[in-house]
Amino acid sequence: MPSDTAPSAARKDFIREMVAEDVAANRFGRPVTTRFPPEPNGFPHIGHVKSVCLNFGIAREYGGRCNLRFDDTNPFTEDIKYVEAIKRDVEWLGFTWDSELYASDYFEKLYEIAEDLVKRGKAYVDSQTEEEIRVNRGTVTTPGSPGPYRDRTPDENLDLLRRMKAGEFPDGAHVLRAKIDLAHPNMIMRDPLLLRIRHAAHYRRGTAWCLYPLYDFAHGLSDAIEGITHSLCTLEFKDNRDIYDWLVHEAGFERPPEQTEFARLELDYTVLSKRKLLKLVNERRVSGWDDPRMPTISGMRRRGVTPEGLRNFAEAIGVARKPARTELATFEHYIRDDLNMRVPRVMAVLNPLKVVLTNYPENQVDELDASYYPHDVPLTGSRKVPFSRELWIERDDFMENPPKKFFRLAPGREVRLRYGYFITCTDVIKDASGNVVELRCTYDPATRGGDAHDGRKVQGTIHWVSARHALDAEVRLYDKLFTVPDPDAVDEGQEFTGTLNPDSLVVVPGAKIEPSVAKDPIGTRYQFERTGYFIGDTVDSRPDHLVFNRTVTLRDSWAKVKGGGAGGGQ
Ligand code: ATP
Ligand code: MG
Fold first, then answer.
1. How many CA atoms lie within 13 A of 566 on its CB side?
2. Would you say residue 274 lies in a domain?
3. Residue 452 binned pLDDT confidence (cut-offs 50, 70, 90)
4. Which of 95, 234, 244 has most ligand 1 atoms within 8 Å of CB, for mutation?
5. What are the strands, taking DSSP E only, across 270-365?
6. Which of 119-123's residues contact partners 24+ apart within 8 Å by CB, and which partners?
7. Contact 277/82 with Cβ under 8 angstroms?
8. What is the C-alpha separation between 456 and 451, in angstroms, rounded?
9. Cβ-count burial of 529 within 10 angstroms (0-12 exposed, 13-18 middle, 19+ buried)?
10. What is the CA radius of gyration of the chain?
């Protein structure tokens, strides 16, 4: 959990500076109150993590409150399953809301405000089509023109509004519009739509209610109804601030909330729009909202990302006014950094090559001590790893004709087996087509634990698994979901799905894992030494069919020291 105390000066962003000033001046006369306002039309994604961490973080740091408010004003796209996913994911991230609220509970209150605006001549019922309204709104360079209904009297408007609510009219027959200024430089202020008729089944309100508020009418007033002080939203709502302020003022709220915009998270090689993520799900480009390649919280959780790693990432990228893209490497850095400090190391061979130790007794098993954590991790623990005559090593750790800098196994070459012995390759067995199928090696009993007592050195240490004891596993290696850094930027007429990476999932069917993992619950995270961070897949793994997802590779610098020591945090 981030600290409960106010943030250090170094961490203060422009929003926290503003909140601190408002608190010092007691500007709102009530505790800092924020809200996270998702529309329940999809699973939350890493962009929402930024907003959640910001809103809940500020409330916590300033002794305030944060509401979870479902912005559920569209009957066509919303669903209870999304409400449940959002609640589960916010909790999993480590946050607790002070109130769970629904904009759809404010429909009556918003209607009352609408009647009041009508009575005061601040809103009118327009019976033009939405298309006519759009055309008559003018352009950025030309003012709009009043339609034939703009001068209806308050009484006429009130009568129509009441009948709209009573369900007398079909969809689109009338809308309620604020009466502001058809020449306003901000197009949004040219008599914005407030309410429209929708005969539809809302997931909470059913079919009884048919007057749906538009975003602008619902959002600011929902904030005001809840006593929000700081309404934090992403930059695309900057132009909506005028109508936000107009409405909370006209509705008579004292010390109304203030909207402040910040740059949304834009992550390379990723799309962060629920509409697009839904398309990937519907078109079965991914296995579901929780596909480990998805930037959704549920996908990242299934992939092995930790809530702490996500919160550290959100804190590190901070909030700013200026739009910026975030590199995937930055995200992976924080995920890896957190895993490094918390997960046990075990040995797994993804692409196995058999090694037979010709001088090791046939039925002997040696139980070797192996620590779960390297020295620089403040956790302790160890297990026994069985060692026997037949082992699996990684195919990549052997080369018949190695180049100069290759320090692993080769004919006549001696290497260290991690936690085990020095072995020397004596023979290479091939099949009829010349493929290497097995290595014969000798081991040196005097090197148990990995040290030669005669001071002899080896340059390479490789991982291994005892063949007789190994567990079989399917390993899923994930890569970027898209091949281009900005998949949203596609040419006209092109679909963003055109740049999906066909190799974003590589299934390794025949991996060999050390037997100690059999005792761990499915869903345990590990570092497979020298290979990456992994988690047991909670959806497809069974005791008799283990499946592991690669969360993230080891640090990129590993490539440079690959031939050398054991690496992977050693
Ligand atoms: P989407 O395009 O994915 O549907 P949205 O903004 O419509 O995104 P909402 O459910 O309305 O999604 O968003 C809830 C909150 O999360 C809003 O305050 C929104 O500004 C914020 N949010 C959404 N996407 C991001 C992002 N990429 N970075 C930061 N905040 C975001
Ligand atoms: Mg939205």
1. 17
2. no
3. confident
4. 234
5. 325-326, 345-346, 348-349, 352-357
6. 119/154, 119/158, 120/154, 120/250, 121/154, 121/179, 122/178, 122/179, 122/250, 123/157, 123/176, 123/177, 123/178, 123/179, 123/194
7. no
8. 8
9. buried
10. 31
Q: Is the C-beta atom of 260 inside 6 A of ligand 1? A: no
Count of all residues that appear for the chain in the document: 570
Write the CATH number for 456.
2.40.240.10
Rounded to an integer, what distance in angstroms lies between the CA atom of residue 167 and that of residue 208? 9
How many CB atoms are located within 10 Å of the residue 322 CB?
A: 7
Q: How far apart are CA 297 and CA 299, in angstroms?
A: 5
- Regarding the beta carbon of 234 and ligand 1, being less than 6 Å apart is answered yes
pLDDT digits (tens, 9 = 90+) for 153-212: 999 999 999 999 999 999 999 999 999 999 999 999 999 999 999 999 999 999 999 999
Asked whether residue 122 is assigned to any structural domain, the reply reads yes
How far is Cα 46 from Cα 34, in angstroms, rounded to an integer? 19
Rounded CA separation 346/340 (Å)? 13
- Alpha-carbon distance of 390 to 224, in angstroms, equals 70
Full residue range of the structural domain in which residue 173 is found: 9-264
Which CATH number covers residue 252?
3.40.50.620
Contacts of 353 (CB under 8 A, 6+ apart): 392, 393, 394, 395, 397, 398, 436, 437, 438, 439
Annotate 79-126 with three-state secondary structure: CHHHHHHHHHHHHHHCCCCCEEEEHHHHHHHHHHHHHHHHHCCCEEEE
Name the token pair of 40. Answer: 């329940």
Q: Ligand 1, from 39, 51, 66: best to mutate by most atoms within 8 Å of Cβ?
A: 51
SS3 188: helix
pTM of the predicted model over 0.85: yes
pLDDT at res. 2: 45
CB of 52 sitting under 6 A from ligand 1: no
